[in-house]
Amino acid sequence: KYVPIQKYFKLNNNLFKNGVYISKHSYTTLSKISLNTDNINYVKFYENAFDMKKDILNENKGKSGIYMLTNKITKKIYIGQSTDLSKRFKNYLNFSYINSKPHLKINRALINYGYSKFSVTILEYCDKLDLLIREQFYFDKLNPQYNKLVGSSLRSKYSPETKARINKSLKEVSLKETSALFGSLQTEAIKPQIRLKKLKESKPLFGQTQSEISKEFIKPQASGRKQFEDTKLKLSVISGNPVNIYEKFSSKGFKLIGSFVSARRAGKFLGISGSTVIKYRNSGEIFKDRYKFSSK
């Protein structure tokens, strides 16, 4: 039985202090539990959300990406996204903040079980405009129990009209594991046919010229209205040139660390030009003996 962390007293060598459940047991960065990450690569893993708070905040400062919170007792997970992961975790690790939003399942779980019973996984760093698409990818793969809707952490900030636009956008550009942009498990012989079919089914503008596409998306700006972020996202997916970035790890070879809708955005992530990304992607050479680029 777990006692709410807002209570202050000693129990079985565990200490409740300053509104936070503190366990005297230490944890390593090597997981001994199942993270349900079959066929999923992750960038960083923190075994104990409380003990490793400093590392979590410092190592993710200013980075946008997809994260997962795992209850080590129940094995239930939460999938989320943020344009600044450090700021998001700073909120999660602030008891006053999560206590002010008890309507969220993940907040209630953090309160009931305590931070030390949760691990933090950085699934992927990616461009801000790619967040919704990549979050949907991990939703489809991992099926989180603490949240059921992509972008759920953002929806409370939006008007009903904007929420409707986000829902519409997600339906149109949602990328499943067999998507043309993020690869499939099919044989090489049928991949081209699958890509063509997926493009025709999921992209209403597929087959139109660039000028026709531009006209449709320029209309809102021409009338003085601000272009919505989800519209920008759709345009990037339709007209972009997808690039995956792999980083070299001595023990595991290359691991996927990010997927981007264009070479320019991939280059921005590494602080280099888009033309450099294209050059190394086309040649197959390794950039600075560390990064490899691919469109598949």
From TrEMBL:
Limits of the GIY-YIG domain: 62-148
UniProt-listed SMART domains: GIYc, IENR1
Presence of the UniProt keyword Mitochondrion in the record: yes
Pfam families: GIY-YIG
Keyword list, A-Z: Mitochondrion
Natural source organism: Russula lepida
Mitochondrion is among the record's keywords: yes
GO terms, molecular function: endonuclease activity
Protein name: GIY-YIG domain-containing protein
InterPro entries linked: GIY-YIG_endonuc, GIY-YIG_endonuc_sf, Intron_endoG1, Intron_nuc_1_rpt
